[in-house]
Amino acid sequence: MITGGATGIGKATAQLFVQNGAKVVIADVSNQAENTIKELLNIGGEAIFVKTDVSKETDIKNLIEETVDHFGKLDNMVPIAGIGHPGTLIHEVTLDHWQQMLDINLTGVFLSNKYAITQMQNQGTGGTIVNVSSIMGDVGKTNQFSYNAAKAGVANLTRSLGVTYANQGIRVNAICPGFVDTPILSIADEEKRSLLISAHPIGRLGRAEEIARTILFLASEDLSFMVEANLIVDGGYTAQ
Predict the structure, then answer these.
(1) Catalytic member of 115, 147, 165, 237
(2) Model pTM?
(3) Which of 96, 123, 202, 229 sits 20 to 30 Å CA-CA off 74?
(4) pLDDT tens, residue by residue, 72-125
């Protein structure tokens, strides 16, 4: 199950999971997900789309129910759905803006984890969750107060869930990407984009498929001893 699976990192993750034999559920608010589903079916995958607003508890409950009705169980949850913003001074941040950022980027992850873990417990077969935090959950960035706060929340939520449910065979980890060349960066103009590129020692932005490969790795049995990790994949950004 991949929230935010219609485009960007979510779409790349869905494609990679299908290529490795997984049956995929894409949850998104965007009808672009329907085209993504068609692409997955065209490469021989099994996939369905459930329109979902991750900030709404009823939508997440419905998402889990439809997944189990269709595929019988839930093995892996990857909550990717999120929004960004170009940056705002704290005295200009409205409560509505703050709340929207937390509702989607943090509460949406909380709800996804809550109901995925509940389903995995009911199955009794364990499972994996790979949350998507950000390097912005680990370092500060000018004028990104609400985004930074939400992503830091995802990082610590992951740590707490990881140590709480490890003994039930449910592995919860997170990936913390640097800046990745996806539609969410469309809000950045060319000057800002150049600055972002120059901030990465590797000399470029990340690619969606690179993040997808790391998510698949975290979800795989290759990392069966890893829990509550926040794995940084950032082209060297945070090492400076």
Answers:
(1) 147
(2) 0.93
(3) 229
(4) 999 999 999 998 876 777 788 889 988 999 999 999 999 999 999 999 999 999
Tell me 109's DSSP state.
H
Q: Count CB-CB contacts under 10 A for residue 137.
A: 22
Task: Tell which residue, 27, 31, 97, 111, has the closest CA to residue 66.
Answer: 27
Q: Is residue 20 situated within a structural domain?
A: no
DSSP letter for 235, please. Answer: T
In a domain, 211, yes or no: yes
Q: Is 202 helix (H, G, I), strand (E, B) or coil?
A: coil
**Is residue 115 annotated as a catalytic residue, yes or no?**
no
Decide: helix, strand or coil at residue 182.
Answer: coil
Which phi and psi angles does 185 have, rounded to 5°?
-90, 5
Number of domains in the chain: 1
Q: How many residues comprise the chain?
A: 240
CATH number of the domain enclosing 143: 3.40.50.720
* Three-state DSSP state, 129: strand
Instruction: Write out the residue range of the structural domain in which residue 171 sits.
Output: 53-235
